[in-house]
Design goal:
By secondary structure, the protein is of the alpha/beta class. The chain is about 35% helix and about 20% strand. Helix 16 (about 570-580) links the parallel strand 19 and strand 20. The chain starts with 6 loop residues before the first helix and ends with a helix.
Length: about 725
């Protein structure tokens, strides 16, 4: 469809909106630093997935012309982002941190700092690191028959062809151009005699080196990177360091596991992790390193590494500051210095889940909606913990896509199995960049007696659902939890998500069918309440959109409101265009990628697209269809992308409780009232920050939802019994 915006460039536009939060001078410096680190981390993944896919398309001549242009445009846009990012970091954020007492010290160090850091590096760091021969600084004959040169050293050709190490994706490296030290007995070698060595900084090492005690009101800190560059000579006695360079390589991660290996699927996934560190390089980001005594140019190292990895000029990104900012997360968590941080509000308890009442009694009284992170994630943890310990619970089935380290939910599932309950966990090993963690706790679950199912061939299980079956006087009762986000207690404090608890029989029947289809042999049978991708969800979504268009043509008020993370499916976009042309008023809140172009005459003038970028990551998915006045509400695990609708197992969950439907209507409406953190997508494909109108009161939706959670606590009835009666 020609009226669609480019997906990759739309994603870059999203990241520039995140960067705009870092550029805000009204935010505390550690909060600005947090946004900067998010931007750099997002771009890392973008290169490993999207840029890698474009490079494959270019190499295979599939839409090569378009891929080449997008690669060129993307490189230019990202280069511009990095210039703004490092200018902000170096000229505003680091100075503001220093003024607040948290000072980054970089060379040249004072005499006292040098006296501490030099011995510290040689004592605590140098024994851990491993220098590796990389190869020559210039091209050489690849004949490796000669074992040693006249000085008894390995010839450069041998180093290149036999011992050049693999550069691991994402790891920070120091690179050194070496030359035999000059002396009367050993004259300076030619360029052909120069060597390159690289030293990787393993993730286990903290890159932040504290120069003051933790109790100090002022803290100076240094970077391990600088120590490596300054004292890296210690690795190479007898050689003179001619050039130094800090760099990171990102490699292609856009490949999948061999789905045919059912008998050893976990081993196949582990092989994918190995391949990821050996795949095609897609980017090199580097930082030139100067001292006060030398103006060192690292061109020879850059040429050698990029030549070895077959990287072009568009793949190179020069940084004027520290690399891999995401690994400096401990800086944001530094104790004290509250004046440098943005306060993360404490989540409020949901009034329905009284500590003296079981979760089963609460859910039996009626469906419950949990709004994260404004309300506490504790009821979800309680749901699993009580299921594990309750003697009447006989079965627990759940999907697990991503979860935290030391997860209380994983511990509850293990304990439930040890307590003799029938526990099934459908673990998605293919959750990108979480594969290693998922493999680890999948093995732990199996050891505890949990039945672990490793997803489906060629499909990722992205749905978030848990089914608990409890034996009660009336028979077996199914208690259900659905979510738009993962079972992760850590991200539940930073992501805006929704959870729905229910024990409705129709949802229970569909949930049982859902798990049976995933774990056993079953035809993909239609469900009556839940809608599952990839079989039904896309078709159902387009039917709902087309129904609004039909009703609008018949004279009814057509209305669609949706909150999603991504809109990049051509068929869904086409349906929305048709609905707009039929007169349906469509309001879309799309956090990230949006390939649909709103506001174009004759095509999409009835479509409004906004994006909210604020303190919490907007992650919930809510859908509303007017349906001629018989309003329908849904929450979902799925975004409107081909991968979610066609290549993943997802769920669309109807919201049937009238009180919760009104709550969702209010939440959706509030997002479109935001005039503080909202961006508007223009017909041209550019995003514009929404400005408050003259005499209009400021409205920030995340602040509003926080106040709603607080108000719910303040106004609920005092006793759980009264609350249950009211809900019933």
């Amino acid at each position: 469809m020609t009226e669609l915006l480019n997906r990759e460039l739309s994603w870059i536009n999203y990241n520039t909106r995140v960067l705009e939060e870092a550029l805000r001078k009204d935010l505390p410096p550690l909060e600005r630093f947090r946004f900067i680190s998010i931007v750099t981390s997002n771009f890392d993944e973008f290169f490993m997935i999207r840029i890698a896919a474009l490079k494959h398309a270019l190499a295979s001549d599939n839409y090569a012309g378009n891929a080449a242009q997008v690669l060129q445009d993307a490189s230019a846009l990202i280069q511009g982002c990095f210039v703004k990012l490092y200018k902000c970091l170096n000229e505003e954020v680091f100075p503001a941190l220093a003024a607040g007492g948290l000072e980054l010290r970089r060379p040249p160090y004072t005499a006292d700092e040098t006296a501490y850091l030099g011995p510290f590096f040689k004592r605590e760091i140098l024994p851990i690191l491993t220098p590796l021969r990389f190869g020559p600084a210039a091209a050489n004959d690849n004949d490796s028959s000669q074992i040693t040169d006249e000085q008894g050293e390995l010839p450069l050709s041998s180093v290149q062809t036999k011992t050049t190490p693999s550069i691991t994706s994402g790891i920070l490296y120091g690179a050194f151009l070496l030359e035999t030290a000059i002396s009367s007995e050993n004259p300076q070698l030619s360029e052909a005699g120069q060597h390159i060595s690289i030293v990787g900084i393993p993730p286990i090492l903290d890159r932040i080196i504290r120069l003051d005690t933790e109790s100090s009101s002022k803290q100076r800190w240094a970077l391990l990177d600088d120590l490596l560059m300054l004292w890296g000579d210690s690795f190479f006695p007898g050689y003179e360091v001619k050039e130094r360079l800090l760099f990171r390589i990102h490699r292609d991660a856009d490949f999948s596991v061999d789905e045919k290996r059912d008998d050893d699927f976990m081993e196949a996934m582990e092989e994918v992790l190995v391949k990821r560190d050996r795949s095609m390089a897609v980017r090199m980001i580097y930082s030139l390193w100067d001292t006060t005594t030398k103006n060192e140019n690292s061109s020879k190292i850059i040429n050698a590494i990029t030549g070895h990895l077959d990287l072009s000029a568009e793949d190179l990104f020069s940084s004027s500051g520290p690399l891999n900012l995401a690994t400096l997360g401990s800086l944001v968590k530094t104790q004290g210095f509250e004046n440098l941080k943005r306060k993360f509000p404490k989540p409020f308890a949901h009034p329905a889940f009284h500590p003296e009442t079981s979760v089963w009694e609460t859910i039996r009284a009626g469906d419950v909606l949990l709004t994260l992170p404004y309300q506490s994630f504790d009821p979800v943890i309680r749901f699993f913990e009580e299921a594990a310990s309750d003697p009447e619970v006989v079965s627990i089935k759940t999907t697990l896509y991503r979860t935290s380290g030391h997860s209380p939910i994983i511990e509850s599932l293990k304990q439930a199995a040890l307590n003799g309950k029938h526990v099934t966990a459908l673990v998605e090993l293919k959750a990108r960049f979480d594969e290693e963690r998922n493999i680890s706790w999948a093995k732990e679950l199996e050891k505890s007696g949990v039945i672990v199912v490793y997803g489906l061939a060629k499909l990722k299980v992205h749905a978030k659902i848990c089914q608990v079956i409890r034996r009660e006087t009336t028979g077996l009762v199914q208690y259900l939890h659905f979510s738009t986000g993962n079972y992760n207690d850590k991200t539940a404090r930073a992501y805006s998500d929704l959870c729905l608890f229910s024990c409705r029989e129709d949802l229970g029947r569909d949930s049982a069918l859902f798990f049976n289809m995933l774990s056993g042999y079953s035809a993909l049978l239609p469900m009556h309440a839940l809608v599952m991708a990839p079989r039904q969800l896309k078709q159902r979504l387009i039917e709902l959109i087309d129904r609004e268009a039909k009703r609008s043509k018949e004279g009814s008020t057509g209305r669609i409101v949706a909150k999603i993370n991504t809109l990049a499916d051509d068929d869904v976009a086409a349906a929305l265009y048709r609905a707009s042309q039929a007169g349906v008023k469509i309001s879309l809140n799309v956090r990230g990628i949006c390939t649909l172009a709103p506001g174009r005459k004759g095509l999409s003038e009835n479509i409004q697209v906004i994006s909210i970028i604020d303190q919490f990551l907007e992650h919930s998915r809510i859908l509303y269809f007017n349906n001629g006045g018989a309003e329908e509400f849904f929450i979902s695990s799925a975004d409107w992308m081909p991968r979610n609708l066609e290549r993943r197992v997802e769920l669309l969950i109807p919201v049937l409780d009238e009180g919760i439907r009104e709550e969702l209507k209010n939440i959706l409406g509030a997002y479109f009232k935001d005039n503080s953190q909202s961006w508007i997508l223009k017909a041209s494909g550019t995003w514009e920050k929404q400005k408050k109108k003259q005499n209009e009161a400021a409205f920030r939706v995340q602040e509003y939802l926080q106040k709603l959670a607080e108000k719910a606590v303040e106004h609920h009835l005092k006793t759980p019994q009264d609350f249950i009666v009211r809900r019933t």
